[in-house]
Amino acid sequence: MKKLYFVILLFFILPVSAFANTDHLILVNLTTNQLSFFENGNYTKTFPVTTGRDRTPTPEGNFCIINKYKNKEYHRKK
């Protein structure tokens, strides 16, 4: 039974860590609404961003970007 739990745990952990790239880091400051970008541990640039409101707050935590679409169109849900 312990082996089954271990295999299930690996199934959920490995996909995220396999794609993780530690050369780039994005930090979002929810207080100042700023995104800071770091490359190879060095600060690169800060951008203004919009974060969530009280009813729909921005999720907090550590996340890994798995897919990136260049110049993707954005449409609001109606």
Write the layout of secondary structure elements.
Layout lengths: L1 H18 L4 E6 L4 E6 L2 E7 L30
Antiparallel strand pairs: 1-2, 2-3
GO molecular function: peptidoglycan L,D-transpeptidase activity; transferase activity
Pathway: Cell wall biogenesis; peptidoglycan biosynthesis
Protein name: L,D-TPase catalytic domain-containing protein
Low-confidence residue ranges: none
Assign an overall shape.
extended
N→C terminal distance: 47 Å
**Strand content range:** 15-25%
The gyration radius over C-alpha positions equals 17 Å
Query: Which sequence of SSEs, written as H and E, runs from N to C?
Result: HEEE
Question: What about the largest sheet?
Answer: 3 strands, antiparallel
| Rounded mean pLDDT score | 78
| Helix residue percentage | 10-25%
Characterization of the model:
By secondary structure, this protein is an alpha+beta fold. It has one domain (14-78). 23% of the residues lie in helices and 24% in strands. The protein has one helix and three strands. It has one helix at 2-19, and strands at 24-29, 34-39, 42-48. Strands 1-2-3 form a three-stranded antiparallel beta sheet, with no helix packed on it. A hairpin with a 2-residue loop joins strand 2 and strand 3. It is extended and about 45 Å long. The mean pLDDT is 78.
Would you summarize the structure shown here?
With 78 residues, this protein is α+β, with helices and mostly antiparallel strands.
Key descriptive features of the protein:
transferase, 3-stranded antiparallel sheet, alpha+beta, LD-transpeptidase, single chain, 78 residues
